[in-house]
Write a structure and sequence with these properties.
mainly alpha; two-stranded antiparallel sheet
């Protein structure tokens, strides 16, 4: 790996700080506007049990934080412009959904359009052992999975912003170590923006990311995962992005499995998410969020270990995580979610 020089490290750190300050400062103003115009999430007594309506549109603060930070610290190239353009498309898509309502098909179509922007610009899964006819559909599947998985975990105060910040820090740190400046700057800017927003999002949340922010952050994380270096030691390192985004991906697969077993549409909302099951079990909201963020951090460390360790050790780490995931899934399914 060719680590970044001190100037790059300083500018990347500055991007993190600027994004944090911008998102932290602008979030209260966006909250005031959302409340004034009635753009709020109202409790329904089932999935939404907060005591009073909570403002949407927090994602605008996160997006602004990222853009301001990058505008001040980084020179845009084609790759990053394509990533930001695709992110802007899903940002607008989420905004429309927060302002009214979009069908799942319309949201999926918009996400596909944003993904095609990446593919057209050459932003795709780039593994030398994968032929292009496999890499292209895998790229589309990956972006859709990452975007929607992150969108699905936005169900609890501080959860998605905390998990997203950890994942963005992991991608940014790996990129800095590998000398991938573009990925490092975007990753650290996203982490800073999410942490700045998170001050207003922890329980009791005063504002939510909404689809505006969860789709934007999920798409950006999925794109960052593809423009990084994981296989410099061995090919098994290619599994690292799955581990870094392990919490939202595991939650999405778990919920889809539960709904499929019940004969329910997989896109239909239901109280089957891992975070909701942990809270039903015995954890408070804040404790549940801490557990998820801690697991995300541990998975990030494990991902780095898989990348730099000998193949035998890497396979052992992956095998242990798969076993732990299966045991956890069986236990979580045993939790009674009936009222």
């Amino acid at each position: 790996m060719s680590a970044a020089d001190p100037t790059t490290l300083g500018l990347a750190g500055l991007a993190f700080v600027i994004a944090w300050v911008t998102a932290n400062a602008i979030t209260p103003r966006i909250r005031e506007a959302a409340v004034r115009f009635g753009i709020v999430d109202r409790p329904d007594g089932r999935l939404k049990r907060h005591e009073e309506p909570v403002a949407y549109l927090g994602g605008l603060a996160v997006a602004l934080g990222v853009l301001v930070a990058l505008g001040v610290t980084y020179r845009f190239g084609q790759e990053i412009l394509a990533v930001l353009l695709g992110s802007a498309i899903v940002l607008v898509l989420g905004l429309i959904d927060d302002l009214g309502s979009l069908s799942p098909k319309a949201k999926l179509a918009g996400q596909l359009l944003a993904t095609l922007v990446l593919v057209k610009a050459g932003v795709r899964i780039q593994l030398v052992f994968l032929p292009e006819w496999v890499a292209l559909p895998l790229t589309v599947l990956w972006i859709l999975a990452a975007t929607n998985a992150f969108n699905l975990i936005d169900i609890m105060d501080g959860l998605s912003s905390g998990v997203g910040a950890v994942a963005a820090l992991c991608f940014g740190g790996i990129a800095l170590a590998a000398g991938r400046e573009s990925t490092a700057f975007v990753g650290l800017a996203l982490a800073g923006a999410l942490l700045g927003f998170r001050r207003h999002n922890v329980e009791p949340a005063r504002i939510y990311l909404g689809d505006t922010g969860s789709l934007f952050a999920g798409f950006l994380l999925g794109a960052l995962a593809m423009i990084n270096d994981y296989t410099l030691v061995h090919r098994i390192g290619a599994i690292a992005p799955l581990m870094i985004l392990g919490v939202p991906l595991f939650d999405m697969l778990f919920v889809m499995y539960i709904r499929w077993r019940r004969g329910m549409p997989v896109m239909l909302g239901s109280p089957d998410h891992i975070a909701l099951r942990l809270r039903k079990w015995r954890l408070s909201t804040r404790a549940t969020v801490r557990v998820n963020v801690a697991v995300s951090a541990l998975l990030g460390v494990a991902a780095v270990a898989v990348m730099i360790s000998p193949q035998a050790v890497a396979l052992g780490v992956i095998g242990g995580l798969v076993l732990a995931a299966l045991v956890t899934a069986v236990w979580l399914r045993s939790i009674d979610m009936s009222l």
